[in-house]
Design brief:
The longest helix has 27 residues. The protein is globular, with a radius of gyration of 23 Å. It is built from 18 helices and six strands. Bound molecules: carboxymethyl coenzyme *A. Carboxymethyl coenzyme *A binds next to helix 17.
């Protein structure tokens, strides 16, 4: 905390607000004592201008289109690291050396199995269940096997829970998919690396040997890294909110998954591909008509995969994904007509005054679905892939919150607009 302050004039009084500065980015005015000392609260719908915490994990400069994790650029991490390496960086603050990475990877591999009882839990869902519902329910459900590890104030238990979550999430995700197509669950194979193991459980069968294509594994590795963390987004803020009540890590992460599922957040990747498919299939749903609908104030439709609360410039992840989409489709010898439609839609939107004036650019979800599909994933699994990627970010934020002595239970205020106090009217007089 610095000695600087800003002055707010309210009710004829000068109120000093301490200024908090981080290493990069906008400074913050500390309004924490405003209500207790001056009887006034602040209003900020969607927390668009409110820092909920200090954080040393991720930095985003939305005007410059910059994203770093623990100081490293997302492009460097996506080019040079494995997803587990980036997970380690997010959780422990530094990139691991060889020995630390071996230990971390081995530890994760030791926990990939789910308790056998959990199989019956998967069986109970209808075949049509959305895999995001299964993912969050199963995350909560597996917590019941590890109640001895629930205490947020026990660092060893927290680390063990983090390892279990990261290790088991691909198994849960793959089994949610197997459930939806009526195939037998495939057990993890621990001589495979993290991403390969996930692809093996997703696309393998117990009756045959499954070879994992290294091009697909590398592509998925990059995609998971690009989703690994993103500051105080809706799901991460949810994980922190829930965790601030001292709820255990599993419960907090399950809540974050539910927040991610929404179409304005991680659910957008499924919506984007459905929108592009509609344009490809329906002659009335042209690029022009989609843009016209997106601009129409009377139509709730939004151009999915466009716009971002923080980026007022090209989302750096979308930039990497756009190049990567071509690379993956060329290498996989796959041809997806929606890639061309996506490009046309992007070009048209970036020249349209409505989108230009509002600084609406493609976000991470615009191109990711095209790549996920080229890798063989069905659209209903796209948000699940986002969740596997975001998991280390959720855990790192939860851990940072728990370890911060300034953390309090999250409990915003409100401006009450209901009826003033009034006399009760008995039932027979109403
Ligand atoms: N299509 C049409 N208009 C849009 C869009 C869009 N995709 N996004 C924002 N706008 C308009 C919005 O109507 C508003 O216009 P006006 O000023 O005339 O009222 C203006 O742009 C500002 O938008 P906002 O809703 O105030 O911005 P926000 O920061 O509250 O919302 C957002 C951010 C991501 C929810 C929003 O841009 C959106 O709904 N995008 C589509 C869904 C999407 O792609 N979500 C993925 C986000 S990135 C990854 C993730 O978080 O999971």
């Amino acid at each position: 905390m610095s000695d600087e302050s800003a002055t707010l004039k309210y009710n004829g009084q000068d109120i000093d607000l301490p200024i908090e500065r981080g290493t990069m980015g906008a400074p913050g005015l500390d309004i924490g004592a405003l209500r207790s000392q001056h009887g006034v609260v602040t209003v900020d719908y969607g927390f668009a201008n409110t820092a909920n915490t200090e954080s040393g994990i991720t930095f985003i400069d939305g005007n410059e289109g910059l994203l770093t994790h623990r100081g490293y650029s997302i492009a460097d991490l996506a080019t040079h690291c494995t997803f587990l390496e980036v997970s380690y960086l997010l959780l422990f603050g530094e990139l691991p050396n060889t020995e630390q990475l071996d230990k971390w990877t081995t530890n994760i591999k030791m926990h990939t199995l789910l308790n056998e009882e959990i199989k019956r839990f998967f069986d109970a869902f209808p075949r049509s269940a959305h895999p995001m519902a299964i993912l969050s329910s199963a995350t909560n459900a597996i917590s019941t096997f590890y109640e001895a590890y629930h205490s947020p104030s026990d660092p060893e238990a927290v680390e063990q829970s983090a390892v279990r979550l990261i290790a088991k999430m691909p198994t849960i995700a793959a089994w949610a998919y197997k459930k939806s197509i009526g195939q037998p669950y495939v057990y993890p194979k621990n001589d495979l690396e993290y991403v390969e193991n996930f692809l093996y459980m997703m696309f393998g069968l117990p009756v045959e040997e499954k070879k994992i294509d290294p091009v697909i594994a590398r592509a998925l590795n990059v995609l998971l890294i690009l989703h690994a963390d993103h500051g105080q987004n809706c799901s991460t803020a949810t994980v922190r909110f829930v965790g601030s009540s001292q709820a255990n890590l599993f419960a907090s992460v399950a809540a974050g998954m539910n927040a991610l599922w929404g179409p304005l957040h991680g659910g957008a990747n499924q919506e984007v591909i459905e929108m592009l498919d509609r344009i490809a299939a329906d002659p009335d749903a042209t690029v022009e008509s989609m843009l016209a609908r997106a601009k129409d104030r009377n139509d709730p439709f939004r151009l999915m995969g466009f716009g971002h609360r923080v980026y007022k410039n090209y989302d750096p992840r979308a930039k990497l994904l756009k190049e990567f989409a071509h690379e993956v489709l060329d290498r996989a010898d796959a041809n997806d007509p929606v890639l061309d439609i996506a490009r046309q839609l992007e070009e048209a939107a970036l020249e349209d005054p409505y989108f230009v004036e509002r600084n609406l650019y493609p976000n991470v979800d615009f191109y990711s679905g095209i790549i996920f599909r080229a890798l063989g994933f069905p659209p209903r699994m796209f948000t699940v892939l986002f969740a596997i990627g975001r998991l280390p970010g959720w855990i790192a934020n939860w851990k940072e919150m728990i370890e911060d002595p300034r953390t309090k239970i999250a409990r915003p205020r409100q401006i009450y607009t209901g009826p003033p106090s009034r006399a009760f009217v008995p039932l027979d007089e109403r």
